[in-house]
Q: What sequence folds into this?
């Protein structure tokens, strides 16, 4: 009685080759499909242009709420991400909502303001002076859960037109004069300790869990738990939805490559058996 041989039939070969091609195409094209998304399109209408990865000029000069001249780079430490809030201090409505939303958000953070991260509000109205910055600082620092931390880690700045314009242009924040006030959008902008733009949060209400992950991401691993970093591998920030979502691309690519290598192994093995059967 002759032994049973596993024969690799031509139809099966064609099917397996087609399957390999399909998996290979999905693995390579999935990331490309997602990279075609342009979330900036909607934000452009609100005068906000996303500039992730670009670096701001840390040599720009401003004046703090005490009237002292400071360099933007003074607020960037070796391990601390920086939260930038573009606003103007006599704003009748929106800037106040942004600051109130920021206070509510930061009060929910476990990270310590002034130790783990910094916050700077910069007025984009170059006519405003340090006295107005001081009044605004007193108001919102006083709402913080630990005013001492707020006084140490949250600064309110004013600057001349050149410095203000360069900073706002570099982060993609657009505004225009409108009957004595300013038309502008609302956003928190996260910067790395090296001054690179890491993330944007728009609106006046900010999700604490997403913001925590964004702080960890912007810190380049300097703050956050191991679990935070695991989450960052599994999630990515979706600007269209305004929150972190499953990093489907990472998952699809990992599964896709595993499937691809498994199919290649099976294909090669069956081809070898077919050749061995043909020789016999």
A:
């Amino acid at each position: 009685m002759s032994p049973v041989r596993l024969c690799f039939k031509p139809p099966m070969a064609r099917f397996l080759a087609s399957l390999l091609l399909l998996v290979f195409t999905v693995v390579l094209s999935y990331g490309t499909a997602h990279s075609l998304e342009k979330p900036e399109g909607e934000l452009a209408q609100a005068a906000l242009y996303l500039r992730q990865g670009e670096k701001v000029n840390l040599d720009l000069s401003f004046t703090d709420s005490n009237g002292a001249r400071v360099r933007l780079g003074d607020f960037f430490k070796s391990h601390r991400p920086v939260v930038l809030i573009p606003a103007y201090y006599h704003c009748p409505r929106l800037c106040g909502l942004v600051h109130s939303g920021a206070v509510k958000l930061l009060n929910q953070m476990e990270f310590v303001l002034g130790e783990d991260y910094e916050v700077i509000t910069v007025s984009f109205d170059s006519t405003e002076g340090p006295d107005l910055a001081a009044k605004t600082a007193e108001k919102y620092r006083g709402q913080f859960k630990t005013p001492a931390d707020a006084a140490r880690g949250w600064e309110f700045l004013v600057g001349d037109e050149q410095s203000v314009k360069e900073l706002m242009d570099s982060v993609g924040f657009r505004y225009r004069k409108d009957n004595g006030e300013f038309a502008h959008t609302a956003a928190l902008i996260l910067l790395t300790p090296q001054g690179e733009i890491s993330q944007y949060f728009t609106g006046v209400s900010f999700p604490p869990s997403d913001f925590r992950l964004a702080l960890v991401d912007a810190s380049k691993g300097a703050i956050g738990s191991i679990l935070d970093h695991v989450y960052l591998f599994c999630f990515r920030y979706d600007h269209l939805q305004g929150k972190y979502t499953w990093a489907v691309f990472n998952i699809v690519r990992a599964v896709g490559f595993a499937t691809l290598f498994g199919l290649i192994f099976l294909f090669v093995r069956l081809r070898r058996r077919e050749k061995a059967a043909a020789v016999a």
Observations:
- The longest helix spans residues 248-279.
- The chain has a mean pLDDT of 78.
